[in-house]
Design goal:
118 residues, mainly alpha, 5% strand
């Protein structure tokens, strides 16, 4: 199954975000993805859900702005792959893997803090 086929069910599965009093916010205002996710049907369905799709069309060279956003995600994944337990998943239980993922994020944030701050 392609990634584009599960885009809409994935958006529907996003849980409500806890925060201020009132109706909980469920979705972001926009969605950025690469060319593989573009189709007219998905674009219309995202508009119906109140999400602005930032999806470059296939066959075009609109990837220039996407690269800046994508670099941040790929860099973070590369930082997480420095930890062997996250690079190769040894844990069968999802809660244990999630704990190691959280611990890896904590270590990355701690290493990037200014030493004078700590």
């Amino acid at each position: 199954m392609s990634d584009g086929a599960i885009l809409l069910p994935l958006i529907d599965a996003i849980p409500a975000v806890k925060g201020k009093v009132g109706a909980p916010r469920r979705r972001s205002d926009s969605l950025t993805a690469d060319k593989a996710y573009h189709s007219n049907f998905r674009e219309v369905m995202l508009h119906v859900k109140g999400i602005e799709p930032l999806l470059p069309r296939r066959g075009s060279d609109d990837d220039t702005s996407l690269g800046r956003l994508r670099w941040v995600v790929e860099r973070t994944i590369a930082w997480l792959h420095q930890f062997r337990r996250l690079r190769v998943r040894y844990e069968r239980r999802a809660d244990i893997h999630h704990a190691f993922l959280s611990f890896g994020c904590i270590l990355i944030c701690f290493r990037t803090l200014d030493p004078a701050f700590c």
